[in-house]
């Protein structure tokens, strides 16, 4: 008797073919991340720039020599071999180009800040929804396995309790060249300044800590620092929830490098000092104190905080690309786009809008829109 035939294995999904719309420096980090993924996950099929020469130079640098050159953004969007677009253009250009990406049925990986305001973001998300394409922003730390481990601990009602206070600080000391010429200080390119750049991370970290429950009210800190063009260089705010939770954040282009977040619960405290970009690619740590008390007669702490180290084979930006490609491949196979990511992006933008409104109103309280 012959043995039964082996089951036929379905072919692996083909690689998601990305087009890169613009040659910003951050696009090099995304390109490197794609090279780290297993074969068949993602590839850069084309690069679009405002000139052939710039796109060609970019391609020669990023390790995808077979990528096609497009000397205009429009040309890349018309490329039938591009099924997903990574868009790192200045924020002021997001609405026209992101909606054009979606209108052509291409999935969208969009740099943060995703828009100048929620109304603009809604136009982008509406276009993605109408075309049935996947949307995700590029907040990379969300995809680090450390973040999942921290979520596990913060969700432990016995060891951590209920979240009561969050403090977040994101900053870097910008050079004089940056403060004069970077797009993030230009009102016509990225008018949100530091609030849209590292302030985005502060707001996302706070929302993450409370499982994306929107605050009720926001009050910006007084005396934000602006440049001569009126773009924010340093600012902060306090967020209030109806049940008494509070959060504070500060973001700055004028202070030493910091990506600190501390979450205080009724039973525990979690502290991470390198949230946005870990000190090392292959591991990331944080500390947790639980049910802390003093050693009598007030001479120490018991128990001591515990350090957790989470290792990873791939850096967080590669894990982000891996998750995005998985979602695109699911849509390609007949599934629906994952709605979690646009919902999280929108909540971040809504809070950012409220902070900006409070700054513009001289630190008056602003209610957060639902």
Automatic annotation (TrEMBL):
| GO molecular function per UniProt | nucleotide binding
The superkingdom listed in its UniProt entry is Eukaryota
Under the heading Pfam families, the entry gives: GFO_IDH_MocA (PF01408), GFO_IDH_MocA_C3 (PF22725)
* InterPro entries hit by this protein: Gfo/Idh/MocA-like_OxRdtase_N, GFO_IDH_MocA-like_dom, NAD(P)-bd_dom_sf
The GFO/IDH/MocA-like oxidoreductase domain covers which part of the protein?
Answer: 149-270
The chain positions of domain Gfo/Idh/MocA-like oxidoreductase N-terminal read: 16-136
- Entry's family note: Belongs to the Gfo/Idh/MocA family.
Name used for this protein in its record: Oxidoreductase
Which species does the entry assign this protein to?
Zea mays
